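Now read the record:
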Amino acid sequence: MLAKRIIPCLDIKDGRTVKGTNFISLKDAGDPVELARIYSEQGADELVFLDITATSDKRKTLLVSLVEKIAREINIPFTVGGGISRTEDVKDLLRAGADKVSINSAAVQRPELIGELAGKFGKQCIVLAIDANLMDGRWKVFTHGGREESRYELFEWAKEGEKLGAGEILFTAMTRDGTKDGFELVANKKLSEIVRIPVIASGGAGKAEHFSEVFTRAGVDAALAASVFHYGEIKIKDLKLKLKQDGISVRI
């Protein structure tokens, strides 16, 4: 059995780590380079960095510089996303030290981008991030940081993304984001059943039991969280010991 992964996520705005609730009310959560080093030392399996302002060329240049600094401080895989819409963006980030890239809005707008990037860099490098909100009983996919509703429904988009060449799905349940009420179990379970690639659950982590639940009841491959790690509410080492006690395979 493959070990389940614990992945801290750092949302980056203007070079700083921020965190909000339901994609709004952002507040500062620290220096991303320092946090990355700490998480690497604490035993995180991977890291995810999402630059929520990386839309201009100037900001993309700043992101590449930040990736270079982080790569020098950690020895675990990390994924970078934010404003990626061209093969040149991916090339720059991988050259700077990233192991994978996360694509979201650009893939929804132009799905063939997934295949183009997978064909050039390998599907193992391509993470399809999906932000979805439960509306009238359906999980609708949103783009642009959760601000714009797309034409897609979560499960059809995940299956299409897999078919086009995505290597992983990172699903953030917008209804759970920052609430600390627990991961969305039903949607994550269905996602894990309908795609063959790894599913990363995001949104809602508040205590160690929530991680156990999403692994045992939803069958995801990895669980991602932010504020509970940033503010020291959950220590990664303690979390992994708890998961091991619950019979879940993790790397200690």
Remarks:
- Residues 5-245 form a domain with the TIM Barrel fold (CATH 3.20.20.70).
- The mean pLDDT is 91.
- The longest helix spans residues 57-71.
- DSSP finds ten helices and twelve strands in the chain.
